[in-house]
Design a protein that fits this description.
By secondary structure, the protein is an alpha/beta fold. The chain has a single domain, classed as Alpha-Beta Barrel (TIM Barrel), CATH 3.20.20.140. It has nine helices and eleven strands. The strands form three sheets. A seven-stranded parallel sheet has the order 1-2-3-4-7-8-9. A two-stranded antiparallel sheet has the order 5-6. The structure holds zinc ion (2 copies).
Length: 281
């Protein structure tokens, strides 16, 4: 079975190596497809997204690599776009201006209902998560997690993208402290979200970044949801969310085994025209 990865970063955003270094490592590990998905620009100062004026440069370099390595590996141009209502531009505008092959829709910054600020649920530091929960949601974890999934559902209903990025990353810094993912209210939020994903024919990526960064022990989405996705016939793909070339292969075997154990016989991949099924072998 050919290895594929559609979720990779680079020096254009918060990745740690140039684009071509990812291509070389992907070739060494016999990947047949490599998709680049830098963080799309956001209209405020930050240290993680592509700068607005670098966006066309990024796109041109990916297309140049696509041509250069055409005989060896399929390369695609994507973006991981943040959905922040009232802040980020529409995904369709991004797609059109860049001529993207695909978009991963992700929520890293949660809008507070009173619009007091943004809760950063990602990143390396638990303290950022804890402080945001306190400052923006008065430590009301159900309100905070509810706002996270409400924002994801709004993104899903808006459509305009193909792949859901690290669906339940909200769990990463929780570390079993504020809520249990077995709680009925949490189950309801996830189930509602999955139903909307199904309705919009989206693909859920299985993303092991939390595991290989040592920030949590689970995949995104958590392993227990994979049989539910299978039951609902929601397609999955395996993306490592690589910020360094070495990340391309990290937890690959573990993730594939979890997907297979959930009963999936196929992964979804992009072939240059459509998203299609590839048999797991
Ligand atoms: Zn992300
Ligand atoms: Zn990412």
């Amino acid at each position: 079975m050919d290895k594929t990865n559609f979720h990779t970063h680079s020096l254009y955003c918060d990745g740690k190596a140039p684009l071509e270094a990812f291509v070389r490592t992907a070739l060494n590990h016999h990947f047949s497809v490599l998709g680049f998905s830098s963080h799309a620009p956001v209209p405020f100062s930050n240290g993680f997204a592509v700068a607005e004026d670098q966006l066309p440069v990024y796109c041109r370099e990916v297309r140049a690599l696509q041509e250069k390595y055409a005989e060896q590996i399929q390369i695609f141009l994507g973006l991981e776009a943040d959905y922040i209502p009232g802040v980020t531009r529409s995904f369709s505008a991004l797609r059109e201006s860049c001529g993207l092959d695909y978009i991963i829709g992700s929520v890293h910054l949660v809008v507070n209902p009173d619009k007091k600020g943004l809760w950063f649920i990602d990143g390396p530091r638990v303290s950022t998560y804890d402080n945001g929960l306190k400052m923006l949601f008065d430590n009301d974890i159900r309100a905070a997690v509810g706002a996270y999934y409400a924002q994801i559902q709004q993104m899903i209903r808006a459509g305009e993208f193909e792949i859901i990025g690290h669906l339940d990353k909200i769990v990463m810094h929780n570390k079993h402290r504020f809520f249990s993912t077995d709680a009925p209210w949490y189950f309801t939020l996830m189930t509602e979200t999955l139903e909307q994903i199904k309705q919009q024919n989206l693909i859920v990526e299985v993303n092991p970044r939390g595991r290989y960064k040592g920030r949590c022990s689970n995949l995104f989405p958590e392993e227990k949801w994979l049989p539910v996705l299978r039951e609902m016939k929601i397609p999955v793909m395996l993306n490592s969310d690589a910020h360094h070339p070495d990340d391309l292969i990290k937890e690959y075997d573990y993730s594939l085994a979890a997907i297979r154990a959930a009963g999936f016989s196929h992964l979804h991949i992009y072939d240059g025209a459509d998203f299609i099924e590839q048999e797991i072998s």
